[in-house]
UniProtKB/TrEMBL annotation:
Residues 97-194, 204-314 form the Transcription factor IIB C-terminal module domain. Residues 62-92, 323-357 are annotated as: Disordered. GO terms for molecular function: RNA polymerase III general transcription initiation factor activity; RNA polymerase III type 3 promoter sequence-specific DNA binding; zinc ion binding. Residues 70-85 have a biased composition (Polar residues). Keywords: Metal-binding, Nucleus, Transcription, Transcription regulation, Zinc, Zinc-finger. This is Uncharacterized protein.
């Protein structure tokens, strides 16, 4: 049976506070000085405090000496480690996260099918955040939301963004993850990293979606990005989020025949199935996308409903950019033709000089 001596120098299993357990030999209890939770109760008395009617003074002295030797080593190590800590020292590896945070990160990784390396990145980021808060004596609220935000950042660092809509579809119990993410960025001084991730977000998410649908990146990426630029110019869609616009641009490129592309041709995805001219209905395409992107089908249908309601405005903006795009292509072709003509004239001149020295 465990005794109070077994908890000396240990971290709290509930809040993870370092060396915060205080023992009470009389009551046989162990409590955390940070979160005030009783960690253990009904512990057996230690050898030195246990009643023994046949014990002699020599037995008591011998047991006390043995216990002092066993306790002094971890206590001394604890004192030396605390004394050697500096305000800027790295104690991230010693911080123990709450099991709920670890379970949340592992669950999101498993459901999203991301590489396991994302777990290590998310756990390290969570430890940095939790360590900074505990160093100032602040409580960690909504630990599952914090864990989800850490997972979200770690996934983006691996060029595999997981949008908030997907997180909530994977775990319906999540709350305000975006607010917790802002707290993490501020606490860990990741403002520059956050700007870098934001700049790469659109391309990375579009790439992930196109690969999940087994579509040709070189063909559909320019189309989706062009439609995305058009959606930004539609006044009625200004309140629509970036992720919803990405979904909208992708599904419009797949389902709508109202957009005329420069070189229209039949597109074959990596599975060998024709996309343009497919017999699949827009509803079936949306359902397939929702299943592969881990999104709620109701969410996807709502995005497409918004797109269809504003389709005329989108087509007008597309036509306006189409003329500009066409003029740019014409100028580019004329410039290339002029370069070819000048190159041919140079060759003719050189040939004449060689033939008529």
């Amino acid at each position: 049976m465990a005794t109070t001596a077994d908890f000396l120098g240990k971290n709290c299993p509930h809040c993870g506070a370092i060396d915060s357990l205080e023992t009470d030999d009389v009551l046989g209890e162990v409590a955390c000085t940070e979160c005030a939770i009783v960690v253990a109760m009904g512990l057996e008395e230690s050898v030195s405090t246990r009643y023994d009617k046949d014990a002699t003074y020599d037995d008591v002295d011998r047991h006390r000496k043995r216990e002092d030797m066993s306790v002094s080593t971890p206590h001394a190590l604890s004192l030396s480690s605390s004394a050697s800590k500096t305000p800027g020292g790295d104690t991230t590896g010693k911080i123990i996260l709450h099991p709920a945070m670890l379970n949340c990160i592992r669950g999101l990784q498993k459901k999203s099918a991301l590489p396991e390396q994302v777990i290590g990145r998310a756990v390290e980021l969570a430890r940095r955040f939790v360590g900074g808060r505990r160093a100032r004596g602040q409580r960690i609220e909504k630990q599952q939301d914090v864990a989800a935000a850490c997972f979200m950042i770690a996934a983006e660092q691996m060029n595999h963004p997981v949008p908030l809509a997907e997180l909530r579809h994977l775990d319906a119990a999540l709350g305000d993850v975006e607010y917790r993410r802002a707290e993490i960025v501020k606490e860990t001084h990741m403002e520059e990293e956050e700007r870098r991730l934001k700049a790469m977000y659109v391309d990375n998410l579009l790439t992930i979606y196109l690969r999940k649908l087994s579509l040709q990146l070189s063909l559909y990426m320019p189309r989706c990005k062009r439609l995305l630029g058009v959606l930004h110019h539609v006044d009625s869609l200004r309140e629509v989020g970036v992720v919803d616009k990405i979904i909208m641009s992708l599904l419009l490129a797949l389902t709508s025949r109202s957009f005329q592309w420069e070189k229209e041709k039949t597109v074959v995805n990596t599975t060998g199935n024709s996309v343009i001219g497919s017999t699949n209905s827009p509803e079936a395409i949306c359902a397939n996308f929702a299943a592969k992107a881990n999104l709620d089908i109701g969410k996807v249908n709502k995005v497409m409903k918004t797109a269809n309601e504003n389709l005329q405005a989108i087509l007008a903006a597309f036509a306006a950019t189409d003329s500009t795009h066409g003029n740019e292509n014409t100028k580019k072709e004329e410039k290339e033709e002029d370069n070819d003509n000048s190159s041919n004239m140079t060759l003719v001149t050189k040939r004449m000089k060689v033939e008529n020295p």
